[in-house]
Amino acid sequence: MRQAIHIFKKDARALWLEVLLLLALAALLGWTETHFAGAAGVAELLVILAVNYVIARVVHAEVIPGHNQFWLTRPYRWKSLLGAKLLFVLVFVNIPIFAAQCYMIVAEGFSFTQSLPGLIWSQVLMVVCVSLPATCLASLTAGLMPFLLSEFIMVGAAFISDAMLVRASRSSFLGALQAGPGAIEWVRDSLGLVVVTCFALFVLRLQYKTRQTEIGTRWAIGGAVVAAIVFLCTPWTLAMGVQSALSKQAFDGSSLNVGLESVSKSVFPPNPVGAVSLPIAVKGTPASQELEVDALSITLVAADGQTWNSGYVAPIELEGGAKSDPAETLADGILHVDPAFLNSEGARPVTVHAKLYLTSFGDPHSVTVPIQPQPVNALDGLRCAVGFFHQFSCQSIFRWPRRRVYAKTGEDGVESYIRTISYSPFPATLGFNPIEGHSFPTRPDATQATVTTKAPLSYFQIEREIPGVSLADFTIDAKRRALRPPPLPTSSPSEPARRDR
Amino acid sequence: MSGVFRAVELSKSYGKVPVLNALDFEVPEGSVFGLIGPNGAGKTTTIKIMMNILQPTSGHVEVLGMDSRQLGPDDLTKIGYVSENQEMPGWMTVKYLMDYLKPFYPTWDDALAARLLRDFELPLDREINKFSRGMWMKASLASSLAYRPRLLVLDEPFTGLDPLVREDLINSLVNSASGTTIFLSSHDLGEIETFASHICYLDSGRLGFSEEMASLTARFRQVEVTGVATDTEWPREWLRREDTPGVVRFVESRFNDERTKSNIAKVFGEGRPVSIQPMPLRAIFVTLARHAGKP
After folding, report:
1. Which of A121, A206, B142, B282 has the most CB within a 10 Å radius?
2. Which pTM was predicted?
């Protein structure tokens, strides 16, 4: 430990200018996030670049690859050297960002003590997602240029992976490569990060202990490939299973009825060619609870036994974030049915076998707060105020609460809720800016708002069969026909009966 | 004397290119051991394997009684290393360099460090990257002598230095490294000759010879015979034959006064005027290098 501190002090002395730069940028980040949000993105980019630069510089103060380094023939202990580098990153990279986040929390009026778990978890994520991979990469490179080049390649590969994921989610062929609902993406992300962390730690140990860069590089590339595979190929059903295990209570789904609503209630699909929109209604939700359809999988069974499966479908919510009847949940499943199946079975009744992945929300808490420019504390760490265009906005620290948040402004206003939440049990998401905010539709004359939160209680799945469904009734053409205004009455006396109809 | 360094069947290849080929030699404790050989002979590779910077392909090296692959921080506190290729933390001043290194070495001698810096006349507050090559090498040597290492490894320390600096370095080695075994590779044979006690010759990764300097210089002689050689078989130990009208010159690599004169009589006939002169190390080196390392 004494040697690690000794090396740390040397690095601090050598890199004081770089440290100063990072401190200045962290201060700039704190200031822009709280006073000049328009420049916050630029500040974040500069901090990311500076973080990587400082990590590369400190690791390269004792370069691992090569045969001519000064330190190789000096009595350095590899654990001390690695410890010194990690300590430097912790003290001069993570702590300045931690301090900037503390400033943002206090400046935005959030409670520091309540924010502490999020602060700590945010730093854990920063270490795992940024510091550790960058330190690992720096240990495999002998200079700043190879480091930056490798980093650009890795970031490029990550973008390509992400693009593949988006593409896969539109492809019926790559059903196994689908990401699943956004609310449970944290499972896939966590698995990927565990892989990255394990490989990064292993490569760092290998590099500092044995300096076998060729082998270390192979392991690092292998780790990146495994992480990409985990990221791309984690079955969303597995993520659902993990989420299910985190249920607070069991839900008896036998009381739920599943049926199809009129096609007029469905949405226009983004890619309408060959699309079939099934507006699925789930009824019979117990009082004081609400349901969310996180995902669905549809199997169409023809009379002759021919089947077609949709794979994972992200349903489109049909109520625009405002629930009129809590006992009923409407979700639109847009299916791109195999054209051959649609042509042969479109006009004939088929059986719809629906597997629905649901979340029940309950345990409501409410509070009424004034709508005013100064934020006031609401529930679950939310602070709310009137924002741009007189919108009622709420902010949360490090992550939006793992709850449905409803707001109703005015006595007779419509209650609306924020749908895009994550079911992640962790207190923070990755990011420099710890503040996350959402706005609600607001009545202009409203002076107060009622904020209600409902916690996710249970994650479960149900399977139902809906026989006798004609797919032709749910195509885009059928929807157009359903929405077409009735023909104007004609003056022809020869068709009076038609008007009556 | 026991060995502080021993190469056993040491081989090293880069891919399919062999660099060292089954080297076997030993460096006695307390010696000043000069490793010489032409460029590409494998001197630096040998030293880097010795310092556990490179791994041997086969065979092994023992340093201070331990396999070089097992050399750890505690062992490195007893070994000094100075190389012309070594990178130094250029942002450090010499003073900071010495202060920084001191805690690494339990045997660090403050008085010796101060004396070395004084003798080398190094500017204490100047950054190392602003040093001339000579000052840079002095700083490197001072930082490697101050803890009185048991073994000091020097890889081409005199390359590119002016004669005054070379003399300073050699003086400091002689005065400050008493009791230290010095393992030195160099092209500067004139300097090595002044203080090396043992010489090892490498050529194309093969060991030419490894022996005491006194023995080496004793067995090499420049011979000049006035006359013409007869058809008698030319002894194998006679190297670099030069024939000029009336005079034949060669290098005797196994000089023994009685035997050499007897051989001369056999080859040239009795009563020929003969001149037999000792050879400097440089001349021996050139002879061996020209003879493809087969003395």
Report:
1. B142
2. 0.83
Distance, in angstroms, between A51 CA and closest chain B CA?
22
Intervals of chain A under pLDDT 70: 165-180, 265-273, 317-326, 413, 484-501
Q: How far is CA B246 from the centre of its chain?
A: 38
Domains, chain A, ordered by start: 1-163 (no CATH), 168-245 (no CATH), 253-358+463-481 (2.60.40), 363-457 (no CATH)
Q: How much is the pLDDT for A496? A: 41
| Distance between B16 CA and the closest CA of chain A, angstroms | 17
| Phi, psi for residue A173 in degrees, rounded to 5 | -65, -40
Percent of chain A with pLDDT over 90: 33
Q: Quick one: how many helices (H) and strands (E) in chain B?
A: 10, 14
A468: left (phi over 0), alpha (psi -120 to 50) or beta: left
> Cα separation of A459 and A180, whole Å?
14
How many CB atoms sit inside 10 A of residue A155's CB? 10
ipTM value of the model?
0.85
- Beta-bridge partner residues of A464: A354
Q: Does B209 touch chain A (CB under 8 A)?
A: no
pLDDT at residue number A491: 52
Q: Which of B76, B87, B103 sits opposite A6 (nearest CB)?
A: B103
Mutation target vs A (from B45, B87, B91, B183; most A CBs, 10 A cutoff): B87
Chain-wide mean pLDDT for chain A? 84
